[in-house]
Amino acid sequence: MKRRTFVGAGASALLAGCDWDWLAARQGLQGGYVGANVTLGHRLRSGGFPPPSFEGQVDVAIVGAGVAGLAVARQLRRAGIDRYRLFDLEDEAGGNARGHVIAGMGCPLGAHYLPTPGAPAQDVRDLLVELGLLRVQAGRDVYDELTLCHSPQERLLIGSQWQEGLLPMINVDAQALRDYRRFATLVAQARATLPFAIPTVLAGWAPGLDALDGQSFAQWLAAQGLDSTAMRWYLNYCCRDDYGAPLGQVSAWAGLHYFASRHGFRAPGTDGPDDRDELLTWPEGNAWLTRHLAAAHAAQLQTASLTTRVQPTARGVQIDVWNDALGRSERWTADQVVLCTPLFISARLLAADAPAALTATAARIRYAPWLVANVWVPEPLDERPGAPRAWDNVMMGDSPQGLGYVDAMHQSTRPTPASIGPTVLTYYMSFGTAPAAREAL
Predict the structure, then answer these.
(1) E strand or H helix at 411, and its extent?
(2) Which of 109, 142, 281, 411 is close enough to 113 for a disulfide, judged by CB 3.0 to 4.6 Å?
(3) What is the domain range of residue 188?
(4) Alpha helices of 194-244 — where are they, by DSSP H?
(5) 3-12, 140-149, 221-230, 356-365: the lowest-pLDDT one
(6) Model-level pTM?
(7) Beta bridge partners of 424
């Protein structure tokens, strides 16, 4: 299959939820939409639920069973609290980290990898130890070899040739190489003089970060004289890949945080450790993690359930839920509630009881729409000269929204290598935060 054919098919599959019948007739494709339960979610806006016909009581109610909600449940369990309940509108926990199966092959519906955590992320490290993915031997981290992203990890198509890694190196000029070295120096200075960490709460805040947060990454790069095409393309790609928005819509703090909080940035031809993260990944992406997390809370997890109202009371909190699986309204009371939902959803659920700070912040937050297409291919894509097939494959000449594709079978241990058999390619697109992008979606 030609790369151009795949990209075109991927874009069509991404729009499957809009008018699949038309697309299938036009291009002979089979498939469909398996994303969020939009119909149930929109009932939060339309309302019209019957009075509650069931009442329940727990110590803690958790609204949202994505990664945040599952993490809260895990912490409660570790603290000896088991009278809690997780509510989620989807049929499966996991949120943006859910997965799917096509032709017996797992593939992600969103988040598809986990960078190996540094020392500050102790909770994540504890989880990986618990899951058997990490052990510390003689003071060194030893990760499960089957879970670490297999080599080669990533490649970039420039023109008609693939190169290893995503930093452009083919036909780059002297200015680009100078910019690479200059940016490496600036990142090193930022790491040495300003607090950066993951999770960010451990880093604190400093006056120098205010100046960075008050300007876009594009403005900051221009002030530093970093304007070569290759440097700008790479940094723009990093921002779109991590934040869903381009350089001009991401703050300079966020742009530097991408590098300074993790691996730094090493210019080609200079000494130092590899600046690429080691990654943990699975064919189904981070659904492997969320399914293991959810399994520990099967008795407390209530899926296909839309929370419609959260109201503080004199004795705790009252939570109204539409149980779509049973077709009934439920009223739950809890001593405490944890809202693991987007801020605008949290504000809507609390309504008049929402704190002013929450309402104001929710109104300012902008969300970046994404589309993810899982495309089954019976044979490998036609290869171009250069670096061999990798897990992450990015095209420098892709559409402005394209982020490339990952090969779900790259991590597989099946007898038939992905290089000679069918696989599922997961193509990602980020539309940015502009209103026109949402309208296009």
Answers:
(1) none
(2) 281
(3) 167-275
(4) 207-213, 217-223, 229-243
(5) 3-12
(6) 0.89
(7) 376
